[in-house]
C-alpha cells in the first residue's frame, strides 16, 4: 500500500513539497565568492547560506522571526519502567512550559521566537494551562499511546490525525509570519518509541539504537532493549509503510513533528531539527515525502546513541555538538543564531568590488 494513499489531506500536503531550488543555491555559492573574504573561509556557514538559498529560492533569505513548536504526548510503554521519570512529568512539564520556566522558554526568548506548545496526547488534562506568551493548544488525539508491548501505539487514523495536528501547528506559525520552524517535543518514554521506530525503519539492531534517555541505569538500559525487542516482535506491521510503523510503535508527538516538517517544506521554509526524537520524526517525514529532506537543517548532535544512526540514515551533519540530550527543541533553538548569521552574511557583507578590496584571484 503506498504510504499516503489512504490519507488524502496528507497526500495533498506532500504533493505540495517541491524539490529545493538548486539553481538558487548555485547563485548563492557564486555570490559568496564575491564577498570580502577568502573563498570558503566562512566554512560551514557558507554551506548553510547555500542551503537557505535553495530552500527559499531567495538571493537574500531571511529566517526571522522563528517559531518554536513543542509537541507533547504520553506513552503507554512508560508503564514498563523504561524511563528515569514517571509519566506524570509530561503534564507537569507542559505546565512549566506554560509558566515560561523550561529551557525552551528561556532559549525562545533569547531568539525572539514565537512559542507554542501543542498537546497532541498528554494523559492528564492540560486545558487552560497556557498563557498569552506561552500558549498551550489543545489538539489532544488520545490520552497517551497504547503500551506497545501489549497493543499498537495508536490506530492508523490517529497516526494521520497526529501528522495533521503537526501540520496545522506549523501553518499557524507560518500564517503568523514566522520564517523558520524549530520543532521540539516533550514526552516521558518517547526515546523508547523513537528507538523502536528507528530500528524498524532502518533495520538496525535495537541494541545499537537504544540509549539511557532521561538517565536510566545500565540494568534499566538492558530492560529497555528487551521491552523494545519484544514490542517489535509482538506487533504486526508493514515495515515498508512508515505510517504503519508510527501507528504500531511510535508516538503522537513524533507524528506531529513529522507533520510540521511536511508543512514547513510545503511552504518553503527551513525546518531546524532538534535531537534524537526529532530526527526520527524527520526520518518519518522523509520516508513519507523524500523532498522534505532538502528543507531540514540539523541543529545539534544529541548524546543519545541512536541519534547518530538516525543522522546517518538522513545523511545529515548537525551544526552543534554540545553534549545535550534534553529535547523540547532546545538544541535547535541554540543553532538558530547560525542561520540568522548566514542570512546577515548574504545581506550585509560588502563585495570586493563595492569595498574596493583587491580580489587577488583575478
Ligand atoms: O532530544 C534528545 O535527543 C533527547 C534525548 C533523551 C531524552 N530526551 C527527552 O527526554 C524525554 C524522553 O526520555 P525517556 O527516558 O523518558 O524516554 C522526552 O521528554 C525527551 O524530550 C530528549
Ligand atoms: C524534567 C524533564 C524535562 C524535559 N524536557 C524534555 N524532556 C524532559 C524530561 C524531563 C524529565
TrEMBL record:
Coiled coil segments of this chain: none
Q: Which UniProt keywords apply?
A: Cobalamin biosynthesis, Glycosyltransferase, Transferase
Among Gene3D superfamilies, the record links this protein to:
1.10.1610.10, 3.40.50.10210
- Superkingdom of origin organism: Bacteria
Q: In which pathway does it act?
A: Nucleoside biosynthesis; alpha-ribazole biosynthesis; alpha-ribazole from 5,6-dimethylbenzimidazole: step 1/2
In alphabetical order, the GO MF annotations are: glycosyltransferase activity
Record has ATP-binding as a keyword: no
Active site, per annotation:
328
Q: Which InterPro entries match?
A: Nict_dMeBzImd_PRibTrfase (IPR003200), Nict_dMeBzImd_PRibTrfase_bact (IPR017846), Nict_dMeBzImd_PRibTrfase_N (IPR023195), Nict_dMeBzImd_PRibTrfase_sf (IPR036087)
> Catalyses which reaction?
5,6-dimethylbenzimidazole + nicotinate beta-D-ribonucleotide = alpha-ribazole 5'-phosphate + nicotinate + H(+)
EC annotation? Answer: 2.4.2.21
Q: Which Pfam families match?
A: DBI_PRT
Q: What class of enzyme is it?
A: transferase
Q: What the protein does?
A: Catalyzes the synthesis of alpha-ribazole-5'-phosphate from nicotinate mononucleotide (NAMN) and 5,6-dimethylbenzimidazole (DMB).
Say which family it is in.
Belongs to the CobT family.
PANTHER family annotated for this entry? NICOTINATE-NUCLEOTIDE--DIMETHYLBENZIMIDAZOLE PHOSPHORIBOSYLTRANSFERASE (PTHR43463)
NCBIfam families for the chain? cobT_DBIPRT, PRK00105.1
State what protein this is by name.
Answer: Nicotinate-nucleotide--dimethylbenzimidazole phosphoribosyltransferase
Gene name of the encoded protein: cobT
